[in-house]
Amino acid sequence: MAVPLNWQSKVIGALIFRSKTSDSFGEREARVGMLIADQIAGAVANANLHEDPQSEAAERLILAEIGRIANSSLRLEDTYDALSKKIAELVPFDRLAIGTVDRDARTLQYNFVTGIGSDDTKKYRAAGQCDFGR
Question: Which of 5, 83, 84, 110 is positioned for an S-S bond with 41, CB 3.0–4.6 A?
Fold first, then answer.
């Protein structure tokens, strides 16, 4: 027998009963199961809320480490490898490029490329509607 866990008008889970005996659950058990589900739904919902803040806290730690790495040298190019490794912890990628805009030439100059095709051209000419400003 499965009883929905409802919280704030949404089904957030289920309370599932099993028995080796057939016909173990009747109307009474269903009613009691629903009462139990109503009692525990809030606690289950709150427990689920605490999972996200923990992963968000872990993300914030990695972001702080990315900031620390980026600011650890006056020459950013000295930090690219370490930065790319930390970035990959948050956003898995096959290729990562870090570039700067040359507004006069209307190009994006790759300062660092890693991953698949990292030996490709280091410049990208701005496409028609891409405006780097002048």
Answer: 5
